[in-house]
Amino acid sequence: MNRIAIVGHPSSDYMDVEALLKKYGMAEAVPSRREGMTVHDIEASLFKAHNAINVEQAQAEAELCQLTPSDVWQELALDLLLGNIEQKGVWGWASHNTLPLLNMWHKVDEQTAFLLVYQHPATALQNALDRNENISPTEVLNNWAAYHGALLAFYLRHPERSFLVHTQQFLSKPQEVLKALPGLSAKPTEDAIVAAKARPLTAVLSSLEGCEQAEAAYIEAEPLARLLSEQVVEKHAALSLYEELQASATQPDEIDGEIDRRDAWQHFRKQRAALLNTLTKLQQTLEKESAKNATLKRENEELKKTPPTPTVAAVDTTELQQENSMLLEQLHVVQEELEKLYSQARKKATVVSESGPYYGAEQRIKRQLTYRLGAVVVNSHSVKDFVCLPLALKREYAAYQKDVKARKGEKLPPISQYADAHKAEQVKRHLSYRLGQVIMDNAGSPMGWLKLPMALSREAKAFRKERQR
User: Fold this and answer.
1) Domain tally for the chain?
2) How far apart, in whole angstroms, are the C-alpha atoms of residue 174 and residue 187?
3) pLDDT, tens digit, for every residue of 97-110?
């Protein structure tokens, strides 16, 4: 097998796998002999001819069924093989669009091996966030599940020529799979470590005066985003499919990549402090550069007003001004990026706080009508208070209705989910709640109202008797 087709979801970093294999001797596929088409050109033509869906938009595995090109279209694939017949060593390509054409390549060439790569579905969510795509997490995970479902199905049908590997595991230990691919070098022709993708702020933060390396690392890393992504994946079928991939893989991921909630929160706290500190330093740098630029402008204006003399020549500060202007523009861009990161961090903190522990079970019970009606009775001490008790209860009921209307849009979880739910049970043992319960039990009928005074008296005596024990 001297041809390798690397296939993976756009979020799987399959291009890093191709870059690593090239360092071990794999050559890039050259265009076809007759038509001069690359692999990607052939795939695009076949997709268009068969009206196939964009693999990045599929929401179900059935939408990514294998295409069955006619012999005329298969000649394009054969023409590509002829165009590369002069290549003496291993050659190949990497593409996410090869997925619906795997059966075709498997049929037309018995010397092609298929390296199928995958990563955790949380990675797809993070990539969507990085690209600022305005799509729902469900659509992202549906697409991930559809793609990897089709990928796993092909692997299970053709395990003799296929290798299912986790991207990061393969990049760290490629020899475990490379020994099964004859024709590749035992050792890389150059450093086989794939460089990490540079983030937009990396270079600027490292050049910012006073910005420590630790602060830059906290700003760039995103364990909180990873934690939130994993929580979203837990409620989707993509997680069970990922477990199937792990169980079937030639080289599964051996690292438990789950993020601890407390570690993510601590990192977020330090990240926010680093953002504030970096913004302060950036503001100071902007003020300093603005002052320098203003000074240069004043000096330039003064030099323009001073006539040239044989001993003093006018100094041209145009180049300096241009450099300062460029620096100011770069600093403004960095400030906007940092403010955007800080805003996103605050939004993430809101998500965490909304899903965190709830408190206030005691106040929830005291806002209930049962407790409020009982409190009216408890606070009635004189004969006048008891005579006017029905009116007082009516006023309290009207006030309760008004409060319910004011909190109409409020959405609170069940009291059982509160961290202090035990306090709710304690409040229910108060005399106010018990008397209110008696009122609620007897207020439904005229006979109940007649029995209410005696029922309240009995409940109060029972309460005092329990307190004396």
Assistant:
1) 3
2) 10
3) 999 999 999 999 89
- The pair phi, psi for residue 27, each rounded to 5°, is -90, 160
Residues 39-64, buried b or exposed e (16+ Cβ, 10 A)? beebbeebbeeeebbebeebeebebb
CA distance 28 to 32: 12
The pLDDT tens digits of the residues spanning 342-372 come to 776 666 544 444 555 677 888 888 888 899 9
Q: Classify burial at 378, counting beta carbons within 10 Å of its beta carbon; exposed 0-12, middle 13-18, buried 19 or more.
A: middle
What is the pTM assigned to this prediction? 0.55
Backbone angles phi, psi at 11, to 5 degrees: -90, 0
Range of 81's domain? Answer: 3-197
Pair (289, 344) in one structural domain: yes
Pull the structure tokens for residue 378. Answer: 């408890």
Is residue 134 included in any domain, yes or no?
A: yes
Taking CA atoms, 409 is separated from 401, 404, 406, 412, 418, in Å, by 14, 10, 8, 10, 20
Domain co-membership, 289 together with 437: no
